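Here is an idea for our session: we take a single protein and study its fold together. To get us started, please write out a protein record for me. Start from the sequence, derive the C-alpha cells from it, and show both lines together. Go ahead whenever you are ready, and we will take it from there:
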Amino acid sequence: MSTLSFPGNPRSLFVVASVGVASLMALALLSLGAGSSNSSDKQRTGKRKPSRRRKPKVYLRGLYNLGNTCFMNSTLQSLASLDAFNAYVERCIALLPDSDRNSVDAAIAVQLKHVLDLLSPQLSRVSAYSPRSLINSLSHKGRWIASRNEQDAQELFQMLSSTLQSVVRNAETSLFDSGFLTHHLPIENGIVSTSQQSDGDDVAKNDSPSSSPLAASQSSFASARAVLENPLLGMAASRTACVRCGYIEAIRHSTFDNLSLTVPRAHTTSIEECLAMYTVIDRLDDFKCRHCSIVATLARVKQDIATCDSDLAAQDRTSKRAKRVAATAATLREQQRVLDDALANNPEADLPGIQLASPPPSVSTRQTMIARPPKILVLHLSRSIYLPTGGTAKNPACVQLQRFLDISPFTTTGHISTNASTPISGPAVPVNKYSAESLAEIRRRNCLYRLSAMVFHSGAHDSGHFYAYRSVKAANSDDAQTGSNNILTDSDQWFMVSDIRTVEVSLESVLDAGNGYLLFYERV
C-alpha cells in the first residue's frame, strides 16, 4: 500500500509537499517557455499588438437650482461647451474700457465668464456651484430673472447675447475714440465688417515694417477685428416680389443671433424640415407694389397730358386759361420724365411732389434665407400652438437630429433669382452627400455644422423642466484637419446635465431624444 494513503504518517506529508513543489515548478517553467515563445514571435514578425488607450475620465460641474432656475442652468451648460463663445466672452472682458467696468453689462459679462470657467470639463470630481452672483447681476437688467416663476431659456440666451453686444459697442466706441479704427475699419449696419475671414492671417504683410504709419499697430488692428466679431451673429436676406409685374424690391439684410423655427404639427419631423419652413416662399394677397403704383401713376399722368394738349389745341394760346393749361402740361411732362427715370433706374427713389396712384392690391411672394452663416448657429424650436379658445399648448413633435447639419440648401449663393415664384438663390450642393467634393464646397461656403449642445424641455407649455445635453471634445481632436473622413469622425463625449446631476450618455440617445428646444451648432 502506498504511503500516500496514510496522511497521518509524517513521511507521507513530506511526499505530498514534494509533489506540490514539483508541480508549481513545472507550471513556472511552462509559463517562462510560453513567454519566450511570444517574445520570439514578436521579434520574427516585428509587430506589436495594438493597445486600447482609455479615454481620461471627465467630470462636469453641476449648478444648484435656486428656485425654478433650470432654464438658466441648462443654457449656461450649453454655452460652456462652445469654444468660440467662451473665447468671445473672454475677449469682450479684456476689451472693457476702464470707464465701463462698473456698469451692469460689465458685471454680467464678468460673472458669466466666471461661471463658464467653472463649467469647463474637469479631471476629478467637483462640487456643484450656486450661480447666485450671476442671477443678482442679471436681475438689474431684468427683474424676471430673480423671480421664482418659471422662465424661458431662449429669453435668457437673448439677454446674454444682447448684453455682450452692448459691451462690444462700448468697446467699439472706446476704440473709435482712440482714432485708430475710425480711419481704418469700415462699419456696416452697426457691425464691424471684415472682408476676410478672421480665421486667416488678417495682418497685412509688409517687407518694410517702418514704411507705413500703420505698421506699428498691425497686431492691435488684427486683434481688434477678432474681438469685435461676434460668433453668434449671422445675416439673413429677405426678398419681396410682385407676381403681377415681376418687380423685386431691394434685398433687405438683417442680423440675427438665433433663428426661431416653427415646428410642424406632426408626430415626427426633422431639423431640415423646420429650416425648410423658415425659408419657404410665402404668398401675400394684400401687397401694395410700388412698381405697379408708379406704372399706374405714369398712365394717369400721360392721360392728363393728352387732355391738356387737347384743351390747348381748342383755345387761343395767348389767353390766360391757355397759359395755365400750358403750365400744367409742362409740370405733367416733368413728372412723366421723373416717373420714367424711376421705372428705368430705381423705383424705390423718392418722388417729391408726385402723388402715387393706388392700384388694387396684388399677390406677392416673400422669402427669407441665410445670407451669412455665423460661427455658432443657434436654432430655437418654437413649439407654441395657439388654440381656437385663445389658449396655448406645446407642440410635442419629435424633431429628429443628425450630428452634422448642412445648411447650404437654406443659404444664398450670390446668384439672385429675379423670378417671384422661385427661391432667392437656386439649389446648391445636394444635401447629405458627403463626398470629398461636396464637403469641400459646403465648407467653402461655411455651411457645415456640428451639433455641440442642446437645451431640452420636458413638461407642458407653461410648466416643466429644462435640462441640457452637452459635448466634451476629445483631447486629441483637431478641427484643422480637412480630410472628409477626419471631419465626420466623432470622438466627443456627451453628458446629460440636469441642475446638479451629470450623467455620461451616448450620442445616439442624444439624437433620439427628440424634444429639443435650443440647439447649438458649431461651424466645422
The chain has a mean pLDDT of 79. The longest strand covers residues 362-372. The two ends are 84 Å apart (CA to CA).
